[in-house]
Structures are given as structure tokens and as C-alpha cells.
């Protein structure tokens, strides 16, 4: 047997071992500085004797050491092995750190705390992305999984699992365990945790926050039936809910004349927290309380927040709270029923104001309000709340009868339905005048007198439908109803001017009541201008609106309060009601738009040439001012535009996110 030469042995050895991987060690400049090209496969004993080492895939001992029963068979680690092991360990540690960072970031987001700065390792990894080889298949699959919906690994079974599913989505959840399909849990904060909010960050002083909290607690909360803020101190409120704290202080600053600058800060914080919570699944009662009071008072956010709150509340099963409160008689269920009632009331308010469909369409969700009042946990404030629930049910039926405004006359046969709802409203005010409490420790005699105010507003809403599609003379069969609409509108302004409890309550009542007051004023102005003495004299309308302006000016309220924004627009209305107001405004418009042409063209010539030059805010021409009733609530008038300059100035500071 001939011996193999060294070169042959070397070739066989190299052929039996797979070619080593070439790993480049790169610097920050991404230029290769060294290559490690050899993997050590032979044990130390075979390398010492310079003989071929046959090592199994399982590792030492090799065949020779095993045959000779040597115990010191080992493979020394080369530089490549050390680098590989350290790289795997570093990657595992970075992955664990990233998971911990993500978990902490999510918890801080749920608690409303500021976001953490990005990890330094993340920045380094971004710089190395171009030089790192493609991830292994398992890593790629793991990254792809992160884009999919999160699932419950070991979901808790409920008694529903033993029965047939009563909702189709339960079957899909059983099969997929997707968390997005089940009702979310509550996001309660840790009471022992340090408070970290816009107050602790110094955006507003603690003294201002305490003062605004007292304004809301001691004055404003009574207008929302004392369910907006159940906490006695600001510290309790801040620990329980950051978004409720921001909403409470925003509403208080809106009404406080000394908090105009603070209002912008609070409003921005409320918007930030609301936007941040839009896609989060957790929500407790305080979260819905915050959205409810914001929808109740903040006219520029009400439409967006109301719709979002209703859907999220239904997701958390708050829409079934009426039956739960009656059955379980628990304080939690009763509190949820009150919150759902406010959401329902706000939904109906907005449907009336904007002439849009309400989101809550099911009658059974609120029809058992008598059962709520019979619950032992019911209070006097619940009497007030449920009176509004019943009233909104009547107005909802009225809205369903007439439908959206299409510019067409209502049928004459609707007179019988109008009479039916007229009787329902009479029964409503008679019943609740006796049942409602005479006074309230914070809002005086508003409970009963506020019900009378709501009664006049509901009558105006009902009767004003007869003006739909009327361009000239009102048909004789609608004259009585039209006269009742005018009487109701006049009574609305009179009661605000003459009743001391309602006069002072203007700074505190929800935006819906102020919007309907604007509707009543515009209604009287347009009726007197269009129909003259047949329905309402122009001097009467001018007198009432002028007195209303004077009263608004005498009130102490914030700069962005809706009544304050209405003043300038109402003054424009009064100028149009004067004998020469219309003509003067048209002549001024001509002078500003057509300089040098006043002597060559008459007013009639200019108007006939281009009548669109004199269109007003509601799309009607200034000379006739109104040929169709383009006003709110059922005619699409937006009371926010009564003060154009003030409104635009406020929107420049606080952008409106609504698509109204």
C-alpha cells in the first residue's frame, strides 16, 4: 500500500469539509476590515500529532480519541466561533430588550403618560441595516407575525362557551381568538403611581387647575345631572383619568372669563389624549364620561366625539346598562346607565341640530327609563336625566316623521300628526313639572325651569316644519301651526330675558340649548322680514334680539363661549332688520367691490347683472335676505358662523377636526 502524499491528504480533508462562510467585520464606515476564513474542526490531540481528525456531527470525542479512550478530546474555539456565539447572544438580548421596551411603551400609552425616547440600539441597527445580511427564515416569519392581529394564547372561558353563541362574532372569536373581536377590558390606572400629566409638566399651574376644577364641580356639573365628575378633589381626578381631567378643565376654562389663555392649553391636551385613544381598545367609565361632557358642551368637537363614544361604549357593553342596572341593582351598572343616557341625549341633540341621522336607532336601549327610576339607587338627578330621555324619544319620533329637509312642502295630512305630538309634549311638561325637584344646590331652580325651556324648544322644532318649502304665502291650513312656531320662538327669548334663574344659566347650559336659542332668534328675524305683520312684526323681532344681545354682553363668560361668539352675528341680524339696514349694506358692498362705478350704475342694474354678488352666509341674497328658510336646526344653519371673525380666529388657534 502506497502512502498518500501530504497534498493528497490535504485535498481529501478539504473536500470532506464544507467551505467556511466568509463573515465580514465592518466598521461604521461600512468598509470591510478583515475576513475570517477558517473553522477549526480537529481536536487538540489530533492537531498536536498532525493527523487527520474524524469528528462526528455530534462533536467530541473524535474517532481516534474514542478508540484510544482519551479523555482530553476537545475542539478549541477559534475567533469565528467566539464571534458567532457573542453575536447570537447579543441579538437575543437586544430582542428581549426591544420586547420589554415595547411593553413599557404600551403601558405608558394606556395610562396617558409621555412617550419614551427611542432606544439607542434602534438607531445603531438602522445604520447597520444596509450591511446586515437578510434575516433567517424563522426571524422573517416572526416579524411578519407582528403585522397580523393579536390573539389570546389562553383565553378565559365563559359560561357562554357552553351554549350556542348568541352573536355571530363569538363563533369567529372561538376559532381565531383575535383580541379585537372580544369586548375590551377596563384601563384602570395604578393609584400608587406618580401623576404625570400636563399639570405636572407645568403647562398650566396647579393653582389654575384647582380653581377650574372647583368651577366645574361646584357650578357646571349640575347641568349634566352631576355625573360628569364623581371625584371630590383634583388629585383624585388626576390619578383616575387623565382624559377626564383634561375634559373637565377645558369645559371650566370655556366658561371662566379669567381662563382664556388656559383654555387653549386644556383644549389642546384634550384633543391630544382623544386622538391618542382613538385606536386603543381599553376604556373605562371615566373615559366615556370625558367624551360625554365634551360632546355636551364643546360644539366644535361634539359631532366627532359623540359618534366615537357611542360606538366604543357599545363595544364595552354599556348600551345594555339599563337592563343590567334594573336586574343587578349595582352602582356600577347604574353609573353606566347614566353615561349611556347622556350619550343618547347628545346623539339626539346633534341629529336635531345638523339634520342628520342619529347613531342610536334602537328604541329598546332607553325605553325602560321608568325601571331605572324605580331602582333603589335612583336619585333626584336621575329624575331630571330620565325626563330628558323621554323628551328625546318624542323628538326622535318627530324627526322620523318629517325626515330630512328636501326643500318640499310637508303634506297637509301631517297636521294630525303634529297635533298628536303637540299633545305628547303637553303631557310631558305637565308630568315632569310635578316630578322634578324644585331646586338644586348649585344651579338653583334650573331643574324645573329648564324643563319649561326645553318644552318651548321642542314646540318650536315641531311647528317650524310647516315652513319647509314655503317661498311666498303660507297656506291657510298651516297658518295656525306657523303662528304657534312664532309664539314658541318668542317665548324662548322672553324666558331667557325675564327669568332670573334661566338668565344666569346661559353660562352653563349645554351647547344644544344655545344653538336652539340662536335658531329661535334667526327664526323670528327671518319670519318678520319675510312675512311682516302677518306673523311677527319686525320691530318686535328687533326689540327681542337687541335685548338678547345686551343680556349676552352683561354675562361673565369665556372668550370662546358660544354665547359670546353669537353677539356679533346677532348684531348683524339687527342691522338687517332696520328700515335702511339692507339697502345700506348692499350699497357698501357695491362700493367695496366696484370702486368708481357707483355713479354709472344703479343698485338695480348691478344686482340684475350679477345677483350672486350679494349672497349672504346662508346662500341667500342680501336685498331679499331670505327667500327660503335656510336656518338651523332643521334647515342646515350653523350657529357657529354668527360671529365670522371670532369663529375664524378661534379656529386658527384650535383647528376644527369635524367635517360638518
UniProtKB/TrEMBL annotation:
Segments carrying the region annotation (Disordered) are 1-21, 115-165
Q: Where in the cell is it found?
A: Nucleus
| InterPro entries, A to Z | prtT (IPR051089), XnlR_reg_dom (IPR007219), Zn2-C6_fun-type_DNA-bd_sf (IPR036864), Zn2Cys6_DnaBD (IPR001138)
Q: Name one GO molecular function term.
A: DNA-binding transcription factor activity, RNA polymerase II-specific
The annotated regions of Polar residues compositional bias extend over: 1-13
Keyword Heme (UniProt) = no
Instruction: Please tell me whether the keyword Signal is annotated for this protein.
Output: no
Which residue intervals define the domain Zn(2)-C6 fungal-type in the entry? Answer: 42-75
Task: Give me the Gene Ontology terms describing cellular component.
Answer: nucleus
The molecule here is called Zn(2)-C6 fungal-type domain-containing protein
Q: Name one GO biological process term.
A: DNA-templated transcription
According to its UniProt record, where is this protein mainly located? nucleus
Q: What is the lineage of its organism?
A: Eukaryota, Fungi, Dikarya, Ascomycota, Pezizomycotina
Amino acid at each position: 500500500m502506497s502512502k498518500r502524499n501530504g497534498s493528497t491528504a490535504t485535498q481529501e480533508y478539504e473536500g470532506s469539509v464544507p467551505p467556511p462562510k466568509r463573515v465580514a467585520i465592518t466598521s461604521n464606515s461600512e468598509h470591510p476590515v478583515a475576513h475570517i476564513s477558517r473553522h477549526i474542526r480537529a481536536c487538540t490531540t489530533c492537531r498536536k500529532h498532525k493527523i487527520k481528525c474524524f469528528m462526528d456531527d455530534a462533536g467530541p470525542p473524535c474517532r481516534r480519541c474514542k478508540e484510544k479512550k482519551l479523555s482530553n478530546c476537545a475542539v478549541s474555539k477559534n475567533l469565528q466561533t467566539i464571534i458567532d456565539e457573542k453575536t447570537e447572544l447579543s441579538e437575543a438580548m437586544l430582542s428581549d430588550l426591544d420586547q420589554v421596551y415595547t411593553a413599557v411603551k404600551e403601558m405608558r400609552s394606556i395610562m396617558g403618560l409621555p412617550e419614551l425616547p427611542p432606544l439607542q440600539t434602534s438607531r445603531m441597527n438602522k445604520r447597520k441595516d444596509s450591511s446586515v445580511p437578510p434575516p433567517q427564515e424563522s426571524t422573517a416569519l416572526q416579524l411578519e407575525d407582528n403585522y397580523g392581529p393579536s390573539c389570546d394564547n389562553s383565553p378565559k372561558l365563559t359560561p357562554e362557551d357552553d351554549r350556542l353563541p348568541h352573536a355571530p362574532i363569538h363563533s369567529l372569536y372561538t376559532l381565531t381568538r383575535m383580541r379585537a373581536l372580544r369586548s375590551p377590558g377596563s384601563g384602570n390606572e395604578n393609584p400608587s403611581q406618580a401623576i404625570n400629566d400636563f399639570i405636572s409638566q407645568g403647562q398650566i399651574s396647579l393653582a389654575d387647575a384647582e380653581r377650574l376644577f372647583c368651577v366645574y364641580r361646584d357650578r357646571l356639573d349640575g347641568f349634566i345631572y352631576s355625573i360628569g365628575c364623581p371625584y371630590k378633589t383634583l388629585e383624585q381626578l388626576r390619578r383616575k383619568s387623565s382624559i377626564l381631567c383634561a375634559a373637565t378643565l377645558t369645559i371650566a376654562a370655556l366658561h371662566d372669563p379669567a381662563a382664556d389663555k388656559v383654555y387653549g392649553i386644556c383644549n389642546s391636551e384634550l384633543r391630544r389624549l382623544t386622538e391618542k385613544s382613538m385606536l386603543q381598545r381599553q376604556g373605562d367609565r371615566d373615559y366615556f364620561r370625558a367624551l360625554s361632557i365634551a360632546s355636551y358642551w364643546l360644539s366644535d368637537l361634539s359631532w366627532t366625539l359623540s359618534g366615537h363614544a357611542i360606538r366604543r361604549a357599545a363595544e364595552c357593553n354599556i348600551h345594555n346598562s339599563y337592563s343590567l342596572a334594573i336586574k343587578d341593582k349595582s352602582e356600577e351598572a347604574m353609573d353606566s346607565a347614566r353615561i349611556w343616557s347622556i350619550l343618547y341625549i347628545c346623539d339626539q341633540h346633534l341629529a336635531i341640530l345638523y339634520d342628520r341621522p342619529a347613531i342610536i336607532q334602537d328604541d329598546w336601549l332607553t325605553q325602560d327609563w321608568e325601571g331605572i327610576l324605580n331602582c333603589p339607587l335612583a336619585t333626584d338627578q336621575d329624575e331630571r336625566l330620565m325626563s330628558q330621555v323621554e323628551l328625546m324619544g318624542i323628538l326622535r319620533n318627530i324627526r322620523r316623521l318629517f325626515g330630512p329637509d328636501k326643500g318640499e312642502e310637508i303634506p297637509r295630512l301631517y297636521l294630525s300628526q303634529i297635533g298628536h305630538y303637540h299633545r305628547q309634549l303637553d303631557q310631558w311638561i305637565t308630568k315632569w313639572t310635578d316630578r322634578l325637584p324644585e331646586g338644586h344646590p348649585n344651579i338653583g331652580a334650573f331643574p324645573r325651569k329648564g324643563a319649561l325651556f326645553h318644552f318651548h324648544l321642542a314646540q318650536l322644532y315641531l311647528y317650524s316644519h310647516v315652513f319647509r318649502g314655503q317661498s311666498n304665502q303660507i297656506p291657510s291650513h298651516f297658518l295656525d301651526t306657523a303662528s304657534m312656531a312664532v309664539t314658541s320662538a318668542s317665548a324662548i327669548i322672553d324666558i331667557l330675558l325675564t327669568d332670573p334663574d334661566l338668565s344666569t344659566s346661559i353660562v352653563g347650559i349645554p351647547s344644544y340649548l344655545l344653538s336652539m336659542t340662536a335658531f329661535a332668534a334667526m327664526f323670528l328675524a327671518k319670519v318678520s322680514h319675510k312675512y311682516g305683520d302677518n306673523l311677527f312684526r319686525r320691530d318686535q323681532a328687533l326689540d327681542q334680539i337687541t335685548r338678547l344681545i345686551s343680556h349676552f354682553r352683561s354675562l361673565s363668560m369665556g372668550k370662546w363661549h358660544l354665547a359670546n361668539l353669537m353677539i356679533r352675528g346677532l348684531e348683524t341680524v339687527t342691522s338687517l332688520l332696520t328700515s335702511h339696514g339692507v339697502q345700506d349694506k348692499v350699497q357698501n358692498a357695491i362700493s367695496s367691490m366696484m370702486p368708481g362705478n357707483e355713479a354709472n350704475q344703479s343698485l338695480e342694474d348691478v344686482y340684475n347683472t350679477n345677483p350672486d354678488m350679494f349672497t349672504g352666509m346662508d346662500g341667500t341674497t342680501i336685498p331679499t335676505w331670505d327667500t327660503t328658510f335656510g336656518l338651523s336646526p332643521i334647515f342646515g344653519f350653523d350657529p357657529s358662523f354668527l360671529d365670522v371673525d371670532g369663529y375664524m380666529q378661534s379656529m386658527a388657534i384650535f383647528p376644527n377636526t369635524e367635517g360638518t
